[in-house]
Amino acid sequence: MKEGSRNMSGRFITFEGPEGSGKSTQIRLLAEKLESLGIEVAMTREPGGTPVGESIRGILQHDAAGESPLPRAELMLFAASRAQLMGALILPALERGAWVLCDRFIDSTMAYQGFARGMDIDTLDRINDFAIGGRKPDLTVVLDLDVECGFLRLRQRYRDEDGAHDRFEREAIEFHQRVRDGYRRLAKREPGRIHLLDSDRPIEVVASEVWMLVKERFL
Ligand code: TMP
């Protein structure tokens, strides 16, 4: 390590949760707060965040290839998007001292492909690890929300923005219930990294709890 570069390492924070749990709003609010302190912030999302990743996103969410990926192909596409994002955006940003805020990451694969689709958890751990080269997030905030409540929020958003449900949002309610339960299990499995916050509260209340978590750990 070069002299003087010891503090040149940013923080890596991911946001997770079921559909409609308010991740992008909370990321935006946290980014504003960090930027007001003069911290460089890189905001990104999964799948996506790079040209390769955004192409993969179209295949995964909107069947852009003209057919739906089968479960194993789906898993590998998420992993490919993640590997690209890690190498092209996240690691370079962290190395120059920026903080990275990412909307979904490895825990989405565990919750959706693992707990909801039923794929083997150990295999997913290994594939995730391979995709990210071992650099896990420093903090993961799971915005926990009742599934029905999340879908109500989504429907409202789509009415306002004229959007359409993607392939995952069209899954049965039981699938999304397993996603939510999966996140709760993940938080128990890695309590040092993953924090569950109740997202069924006013945006500012959740944002101030996110801020407390970040301040306690990193500032
Ligand atoms: P979103 O970015 O609008 O939340 O949509 C991403 C969708 O992809 C969401 O339904 C969760 C799903 N997903 C997985 O199934 N596995 C993954 O590894 C990731 C990153 C997302």
3D architecture notes:
The structure is a single chain. The chain has a single domain, classed as Rossmann fold (3-Layer(aba) Sandwich), CATH 3.40.50. The protein is α/β, with parallel strands linked by helices and 219 residues long. Residues 1-7 have low confidence and may be disordered. The protein has 8 helices and 5 strands; from the N terminus they run βαβααβααβααβα. The longest helix is centred in the middle third of the chain and has 25 residues, at 71-95. Strands 2-3-1-4-5 form a 5-stranded parallel beta sheet, with helices on both faces. It is globular. Thymidine-5'-phosphate binds next to helix 4. Thymidine-5'-phosphate is lined by residues 19, 45-47, 61, 78, 104, 108-109, 112-113, 168.
